[in-house]
Amino acid sequence: MNLDKIKDFFGNLSTHDLPTGGAALVGIILLILVFKSGKLAYRFLFFLIAAGLFAGAWWWHTHR
Questions:
Q1: What distance lies between CA 22 and its chain's CA centroid?
Q2: What whole-number distance in Å separates Cα of residue 45 and Cα of residue 19?
Q3: Nearest Cα to 31, choosing from 20, 17, 44, 22?
Q4: Per-residue pLDDT tens digits for 7-28
Q5: DSSP 3-state assignment of 64?
Q6: What is the full DSSP assignment across 4-54?
Q7: Could you say which of 10, 18, 51, 55 has the lowest number of CB atoms within 10 Å?
Q8: What's the rounded Cα separation, in Å, for the pair 45 and 34?
Q9: Angle made by CA atoms 55, 39, 36, in degrees to the nearest 5
Q10: What digits encode the pLDDT tens for the residues 39-51?
Q11: pTM of the shown model
């Protein structure tokens, strides 16, 4: 395993990447809640919020 690629990736992160990572992390947590939630309304709501967060993270990442 080449650890230089991983080191370069984390070395090139900037504060501009923090909103992308934060939105993706919260989106992943909400997707976990989708699978653990019992009611259909909560599942749908969590899924919509997670999808919006992933779309916002993608937009932020591609428009910098």
A1: 6
A2: 22
A3: 44
A4: 776 676 676 778 888 888 888 8
A5: coil
A6: HHHHHHHHT--GGGHHHHHHHHHHHHHHHHHHH--SHHHHHHHHHHHHHHH
A7: 10
A8: 9
A9: 65
A10: 899 899 999 999 9
A11: 0.69
